[in-house]
Write a structure and sequence with these properties.
seven-stranded antiparallel beta sheet, Chitobiase, domain 2, seven-stranded mixed beta sheet, alpha+beta, disordered N terminus, Jelly Rolls
Length: 694
């Protein structure tokens, strides 16, 4: 299939994004130490929540990163744990491995309900640039030494790893090489993201072309920022001067004089330039041109992560002939789970996870199937060994392993329709490999084993999720991975909060975007209805400074009072007059300017509350608070979401159901034929009876 190669490329990119998100879980932080050597510290929590090692033999894997521009001076693993009080200390052990190499083993201390703390130094020889794998394996025994060859009670074998456990990397940042590719790696690096070191800056009262170029660039950075946020700031914002890394997007005539002098190009009417300046003080990537159209094209270039990472020079010129587009996003029906096959070794419960990339606006339809091809060792206890397939940790089917099929087994499953899968999801293949008389035999790390063949595939039938609800966000603003005719209606008066709100919106939209070929347009609040008709609209501002919000106040679920100073009560929520002046709101309604389009109002009585509302859809970590088609929030963090639209049933029309089912179609055809025969017979009998009487 033509789209298969494109899908594989897209899946790799999405897998990288998810991996980065795993590498930078919630709570990761960057801080300077007080040491005399000036080392920096990057701390990656082992997990965002407490995790457990259960059973007599189990393992957990997590990831941490060594960035290309770090000179590592030391790595430590800190484990905070609590072992089962029944643990036999002299017979139980925990092994810590980094990239498959054991770095230490220890006897877990079971001291009632008292937490234990252990610090492990990781040798530099086992570390690699990029992603590193940390594995914690537990062999936990609670049985009495005198009980020989008796089954273990697996429920009492446990070791709890607390979320305070972490990997700490001490490092020195290497000097910037002066290339665009190196700047890009640092700008989106997890240390810069968690330390809030970077920002994108546009001129105050930015023109439409400058904002359009900036959000394309922001979308590209958001794809590789691991779920972190990159602010969009106006020139002169106090926060911009304190950033260590800047991306400045502006027409050259609107650049600050100091930056304009560093560009050096005499004529930019027929080209744009992306140039790295001030590498030794405040590294700044300047995106500029005299031509608004070429400035937008340069923004698309920066919004192509693959192209930007390939730049080995300090400047790149963009002309009308420069190819800046990302490859088209292909939605293929057949997806291979693994490119070359995956082997799992060891006894007990083992799982292999596969990330499946799917545009956020598409969901799994009926008749989607999974075909699993696998093989396994013959030395299993086949009365207790099995394989289970899970999607997003929910089981969809299992199969018992047998000695007859050990050299080539299959499992074919239909994905249940009621799972309501949309967007990206995870397929897990879990084996329970049980050995005979395991309490009397030493366990071997390479036995038993199971192998998932590369012929294992997922057949996906998908459909659009087109109902205007935050449950389906980012639809309608993204469709099949690209911007879907997005029109951003700006307020009449723009302050710093306005630009920050735009940055919030496009951080999350950029994370969902898979290509840079869609359309984003910035419109003034006085744009005509004809100008607004061609877009899915995002109206930013208050009743007083955005005409679109003012004109459509009667259609909003949370409406403003007569003078626009605050929100009033509705059928879902009682709002005090003064409290209504301290709320920000998100509301998703049908566009009044064109059927089939949507309008998102990001609004509040003043700019601060508009910014508060935008924070609800600035990241996936906050997005869970928003559902239905309207939400309100206040400065104290209280958020309420509601659904005002009537719910639609998922049942297909009767005719459609009949046409999709062969058995029903056959029965219906037969019934219709019988009815026709009966009707004809009645007509003939009536005619015959009338002739006789006549």
């Amino acid at each position: 299939m033509k789209g298969d190669s494109q899908l594989k490329k897209f899946a790799k990119l999405m897998l990288l994004t998810v991996l980065l998100a795993m590498l930078v879980p919630a709570g990761a932080a960057l801080a300077e130490t007080s040491g005399t050597n000036g080392d920096l510290i990057y701390r990656t929590p082992i997990a965002s929540a407490d995790i457990s090692l259960n059973g007599s033999s189990s393992r957990q894997q997590q990831f941490f990163q060594i960035l290309s521009y770090w000179k590592v001076t030391g790595v430590q693993v800190s484990l905070d744990y609590l072992a089962s009080p029944l643990t036999q200390n002299n017979r139980s052990s925990v092994t810590v491995l980094v990239n498959g190499t054991a770095v230490t083993s220890f006897r877990p201390v079971a001291d009632g309900q008292k937490r234990q703390h252990l610090v492990i130094d990781v040798p530099g020889s086992v570390l690699v640039r990029g992603a590193n794998t940390l594995t914690v394996e537990g062999n936990l025994t609670t049985g009495d030494d005198l009980q020989i060859c008796t089954p273990n009670n697996e429920s009492e074998n446990w070791l709890e790893l607390f979320k305070t456990s972490a990997v700490t990397v001490r490092y020195v940042a290497l000097p910037l090489t002066g290339t665009i590719g190196d700047f890009n790696a640092r700008f989106t690096g997890p240390d810069a993201i968690s330390g809030e070191e970077g920002a994108i800056v546009v001129p105050k009262d930015a023109e439409a072309s400058e904002l359009e170029a900036a959000v394309y660039a922001l979308s590209g950075f958001a794809q590789t920022a691991g779920g972190g946020s990159i602010p969009l700031l106006a020139a002169g914002d106090d926060d911009a001067s304190g950033k260590k890394l800047l991306v400045v997007v502006a027409l050259r005539s609107r650049l600050p004089a100091g930056l304009s002098a560093l560009i050096g190009d005499s004529g930019l009417a027929d080209k744009a330039v992306v140039r790295l300046v001030r590498p030794d003080s405040q590294p700044t990537l300047v995106v500029t041109s005299d031509n608004p159209d070429l400035l937008v094209k340069a923004g698309r270039f920066v919004g192509n992560p693959a192209l930007l990472s390939q730049q080995s020079e300090g400047a790149k010129e963009i002309t009308t002939a420069t190819d800046t587009d990302t490859p088209p996003v292909a939605i293929a029906k057949i997806t291979n789970l693994t490119a070359s096959g995956d082997k799992l070794t060891g006894p007990g419960h083992l799982a292999q996870n596969y990330f499946i990339a799917l545009p956020a606006n598409r969901s799994i339809a009926e008749a989607s199937k999974l075909s699993l091809n696998f093989r396994y060792a013959r030395n299993l206890d086949f009365d207790r060994s099995m394989v289970t397939v899970l999607i997003n940790d929910k089981p969809i089917g299992s199969k018992k392993l047998t000695s007859e099929l050990a050299d080539g087994d299959t499992l074919n499953l239909t994905i249940p329709k009621n799972m309501d899968l949309s967007g990206n999801f995870t397929v897990s293949v879990a084996f329970d490999l049980e050995l005979l008389n395991t309490t009397c035999a030493d366990r071997q790390s390479d036995m038993p084993w199971a192998y998932i063949d590369k012929e294992s595939v997922l057949q996906l039938n998908t459909k659009d999720r087109t109902e205007l609800l935050f449950n389906n966000y980012p639809y309608p603003f993204l469709r099949d991975g690209i911007y879907n005719h997005v029109g951003v209606v700006l307020p009449e008066d723009r302050g710093d909060y306005t630009y920050r709100a735009i940055g919030n919106l496009f951080n999350l939209l950029g994370q969902y975007a898979e290509g840079n070929t869609g359309e984003v347009a910035f419109l003034e609040d006085g744009a005509s209805a004809d100008e607004l008709a061609g877009f899915n609209l995002i109206a930013i501002g208050s009743y007083r400074n955005n005409k679109v919000i003012r004109d459509q106040n009667g259609k909003l679920y949370f409406q403003y009072n007569g003078d626009g100073s605050g929100f009033v009560s509705n059928e879902k929520m009682s709002i005090d007059e003064t409290y209504g002046q301290r709320l920000g709101s998100l509301q998703l309604i049908d566009s009044p300017y064109a059927s089939g389009h949507g309008l998102l109002a990001v609004t509040g009585p003043d700019d601060e509350y508009v910014y508060l509302a935008s924070k609800l859809i600035a990241s996936q970590a906050e997005m869970w608070k928003v559902y239905g088609d309207a939400a309100v929030t206040d400065k104290d963090g209280h958020t309420a979401a509601y659904r005002f639209k009537l719910e639609k049933t998922d049942q297909a029309p009767v005719v459609q159901n009949i046409l999709q089912r062969k058995d029903a179609l056959t029965f219906t055809a037969a019934a219709v034929a019988v009815m026709v025969l009966v009707l004809v017979s009645l007509i003939l009998m009536i005619r015959k009876h009338r002739k006789r009487r006549g």
